[in-house]
Amino acid sequence: MLENITVSHSPHISKPLLTRKVMIDVIIGLVPAMAAAGFYFRVYALILIPACVVSAVVTEWLCNVIRRKPNPVESLGDFSAVVTGIILALSVPPALPVWAAVVGTCFAIAVGKMVFGGLGANIFNPAMVGRAFLTASFGMLMMTWTLPATVDAAMPKIGAESEVAGVTEATIQAATRATPLAWSKEAIKNEYGAQEVNKQLFWGTFMGEIGGCLGETSALALLIGGVYLLIRRTINFHIPLAVLVSAFVFAGVGYLMNSDAYVSPLIHLTGGGLLLGAFFIATDPVTAPLSTKGMWIFGVGVGALTMLIRIVGEYPEGVMFSILLMNAVTPLIDRFCKLTPAGGRPNV
User: Which pLDDT belongs to residue 343?
Assistant: First the structure.
């Protein structure tokens, strides 16, 4: 009987839902986002996604070799490295040089995951660790966007600082060239009429015909993948719902206070990496709380911090920072929101 007992790190998933199956479901859930990235950014997606996946797998294998594991390829079978590579690729600008993407992916796996002991031992989401490293090391590269091929077949690069004038036709047309969150930040600073920008940005952010990270531009694709994960019960609804509702509420408060300076809450939901973070990153079973109550607290924290950074801070996006910050307090959340033991709590 004792021969069937396996001692390992979390996540401890029941046999019908093995870690490998969970990761495969996540990969399938990311297929619509990858397809949208390929449709809108063509060759960039075809290069960056495989590059990040291969570098993630190779880095984990090398770490296993360095740690002198008896079977260095065994951990690769759970596909967690593949998931990290895909998510990181979808979280970077399309025109990011391949070498930078590879460096970021190697850092994500080596420092964000393997240094802690591998899957289940890491306290931060590896993909977000890699993206944070890229943001800190290559700031300009991480703020250079690309116009989708459906808007301009040449896919020209657009710098972080776009020219912003008054609310004119030229300004509205240029809105397709910058990220929606960058434009919302300019609306706050200059108060040049967020209402007009709202009308132009929502459809672009929902479908994907707007600048942004490789896999964050199409809200529709991310929603399809997120619904798939919910139907498969690969993830619970608590964290995604808490993230989106809290973000909508906080963004709505700013919008109600000054609708001419703050963009619509719908733009915040469909723009940037909020949907990617809510469905595919914040729900990571390793770095998220275990209890239902803890999941609600975690999700609300991610949504609130994201909006705080987007609206008040200087940086236009806040999903990466909010998830990493909430990852840091997950052990504290688990401490105060303990699971009920099997058989119920003991009578003391």
Answer: 55
